[in-house]
Amino acid sequence: MTDGPRLQSRTLDDEARRQATDMIRRLRDPRISDDAASALFDELARLLMYPRVGDLLFWRTPELTEEEIIEEALQYHPFVG
Description:
- It is a single chain.
- Helices cover 54% and strands 0% of the residues.
- By secondary structure, it is mainly alpha-helical.
- α1 packs antiparallel against α2 (34-48).
- It is globular.
- The mean pLDDT is 89.
């Protein structure tokens, strides 16, 4: 019996990784406006292909680093039935 195909994590090129890191830093700035944060969340979710990116940024204890957020998001594989 086999476990089935193993899913590999996705990757980002250097430029996309830099963009994601910058967006995460900007989202963590308490001075960001709600409108700007909303647009950044949408863009970051699209870039990382992770629908709950806000959970990784604000609801993890201990707090994740920018790199940990990116790596965890890249492990995500949507369920397709």
